[in-house]
Amino acid sequence: MTKNRTSLHGQWSSRWAFILAATGSAVGLGNIWKFPYITGENGGGAFVLIYLICIACIGIPIMMAEILIGRRGRRSPINTMRVLSREGHHHPAWQYLGWIGVLAGFLILSYYSVIAGWALAYLFRAVGGVFNGVGAERAGEIFAALIEDPERLLAWHTIFVVMTMIVVARGVQGGLERAVRFLMPSLFLLLALLVGYAMSTGSFSEGIRFLFTPDFSRLTPAAILIAMGHAFFTLSLGMGAIMVYGSYLPDNASVTHTSVVIAAADTLVALLAGMAIFPIVFAHGLEPGAGPGLIFQTLPIAFGNMPGGWLFGTLFFILLVFAAWTSAISLIEPAVAWLVENRGMTRVMAAVWAGVVTWLTGLGTVFSFNLWADEKLFGMTFFDLLDFATANVILPLGGLFIALFAGWTLSRGTTRGELKLGETGYRIWYILVRYVAPLAVSAIFLNVIGILRFG
Ligand code: TRP
Question: Residue 78: inside a domain, yes or no?
Answer without folding.
Answer: yes
